[in-house]
Amino acid sequence: MAHHAISNGTMRTFGGFPKSAEFLGDYPDFIGALIIILLGIVLTRGPKLSVHLNSVVTCLNLLVLVLATGIMLIYPQHTSNYSFAPAEHGGFFPYGFGGMVAGAGTCFYAFIGFDAITVSSEEAIDPKKSMPIATAVSVSVVTVLFILASLGVVLFIPWWTVDRVAAFTAALEARGIVWATYITGFGSVLGLSASLFTSMYALPRITYSMASDGLLPKWIGYVMPSTQI
């Protein structure tokens, strides 16, 4: 959306990491570090605040996704020379069965994060009832939205021009709907933050369970009486 303004500015100001350090990124991500610190502070305030924040961020994510998908489905390409699956790009099944399997494997990452439902079962009022419902509903919603969003993108622009880094933002920019690119860009940041927050939310609970089972030292599973963390 910003044409790599943040990364380019960071590298001009602070430089990048050496290429030999493959375990590091290309440049120091100060914004990412700041987001991690802020989310960590929220987690230390207790589970109630964490749940409220996660709910707000999730609702905003869904709103952005529904808005972008709706725009793409309402305004598909209507050009006389446009073909959904042209022969010069492989036709309807361009990458064959192997490509389909590889794509399905990539789609698996859209379903990462549902483990947070199970690790928070001890904090649920009726986990035997709420856990299956929460898992089934969330997986169903994500599946439907994923299918509609993917369909919207390939109807909105030719599939072989889809940007693999920022599909929605690049597609909207290519069609000249600039105002929506800022919304999807903001939604992308929210989505990454929500995914990070989910992992950070689950980690202490997994660590606590492992300490309770004796797989880790007992002191790691200590819970502060004041905050229950």
From TrEMBL:
Record keywords, A-Z: Membrane, Transmembrane, Transmembrane helix, Transport
Superkingdom field: Eukaryota
Keyword Transmembrane helix: yes
GO molecular function: amino acid transmembrane transporter activity
One Pfam entry name: AA_permease_2
InterPro entries: AA/rel_permease1 (IPR002293)
Subcellular location: Membrane
Record's bilayer topology term: Multi-pass membrane protein
GO cellular component, one term: plasma membrane
Cleavable signal peptide: none
Regions that span the bilayer: 27-44, 56-75, 95-112, 133-157, 177-203
Protein name per its UniProtKB record: Amino acid permease/ SLC12A domain-containing protein
Source organism of the structure: Protopolystoma xenopodis
